[in-house]
Amino acid sequence: MTSRYRLLDIGWVLATNLFVLAGVIVWDWPAGNVFLVFWIENAVLGVTTAVRIATAEGAVDGQPRPDSILRFPAWGRVGFFLVHYGIFSFVHLVFVTILAIGAGVEWSFWALGMPALLIALRYVVDLVRDWFLGGRRRQVNAEQAFWSPYPRLIVLHVATLLGFFIAFPFGGGLPRAPWSAAVDGVRAWLASFGYSLSTGTLLVALLMILKTVADLAMIRGWTGRLRTTD
Prior knowledge:
Blueprint: H1 2-25, H2 31-55, H3 74-103, H4 109-133, H5 142-147, H6 150-167, H7 184-191, H8 199-229
């Protein structure tokens, strides 16, 4: 069962991330859309995690620690998570807003609404399939559910911070970063297929590839931990 869930998760990750990657390379989406998609994923992950915390029924080994969220009732656990996670999300949104303004955004359903729907669908399907129908909520307690999104949150934040070094040196008359010459060969190769990308856009595309690798690595690590608890 776990291996089947992992394959489905991998499929969802590849579908959503490669769709955004195609948008950057093939459909000329501005870099700002990529960073807005990062924040949308951040927000959707927070909502689904709040549902997990509220409905988790897993057993607790021994007495909860004094600083554990298990000392709160269910509504208090969710409230504490929303405040705690919300602070990180707000900081992320500030960075994303600055990036989007500087790198440009295409406000269309195809370039922003469709990726957002794919991301939301991915997390909702996982919540229904694995958490409720698969019975995972009876094996994970509220504290485990509380901490589960933070590795992915870190990836999203790191990707956004890297965006400052990727997107901004190529706008506003600022000089190109010294390492930008390393991607000129890739740009020339893509140009031979008719895809003319700026160095900044290409580096944003490479950032999406790195994020996809990180997502797949986390899926492998997470399902491996689940297997040991089955």
